[in-house]
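As a warm-up, study this chain.
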Amino acid sequence: MDSLTPPSAAIAATAAERLAGLATPPGALGRLGELGVWLCAAQGACPPEPLDDVRLVVFAGDHGVAQHGVSAYPPAVTAAMVSTIVAGRAGVSALAQAHGVHVRVLDVSVDGDVPGLPPEVSAHKLRRSSGALHLTDALSPTDTAAAFELGRRVAREEISAGAQLLMSGDLGIGNTTPAACLVAAALGLGADEVVGRGTGIDDATWAHKRDVVAAALVRAGDRVDDPLETLTAMGSADLAATVGFLVAAAESGVPVLLDGLMSVACALTADRVAPGAAAWFVAGHRSTEPAQAHALKALGLEPLLDLGMRLGEGSGAVAAVPMLRSAVAVMRDVALLSEIL
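Now compare it with the structure written out below.
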């Protein structure tokens, strides 16, 4: 794809001038000031509009590699957590209610049918789980394309519904394994550098997970040079949908608040698919996964929060929403020094 248009440099300059003119000591607002300037540029308005419509889409899917001893939990947990989010009882649900965030969860590739789901949750299901990426391709090329387009379509739906800020959430046991593979493939890193503890695995399981990632990278070979081929070889339908979601947001000029490893791994992949997409992303929080740290550095992003979180679901991004609203408030409501002297 062609390089995407970045947020407005002219508006950023106007916002930086406004920030410098506020009735605060120079630099006193720190990251809030920087974030306010970025939001002005992303919205194309200075001062920025209040963030009244913030939307999170959680892409749920199972992973064939979870059947091969890389996680502390069984794959059945994925379906149970989809139902928990629908019921409004998940960790991200509580945070979203506290911070006024609309949550939408989609069963993209859960391994089996989840009973009792509203039709809109399962209407976009593409397949059941994915291939075990160290043994076979995770997806077919057709499935990769379908998942990518699904994500693009969902982003456009949320934007048409009024979204001013988008977030992607993940739900799927074993998903840190393909996410680590995406980061390793994009940055030319080895398995030792990207594999983390996921849901809290012990040393022996970590070593096995590292070997699985190493085997997947060898099996994929030079296909890792192409981001969509990488998703086919070592991704999953839910991650491919997330990549499409992030690309479409950037194409539409809607800012994205990223979550943990899965979100950032997909953001790195999205920037490979559509160079310049990363200019529309801000990192919500720093997870405990090493692959996320590598991806953030490559994207040039510094997380807003560092709370040691590793829940997933989009929870870290939702927790950071008040930071963005605070940045909007100072850019809109703090007096200019020229107004009070």
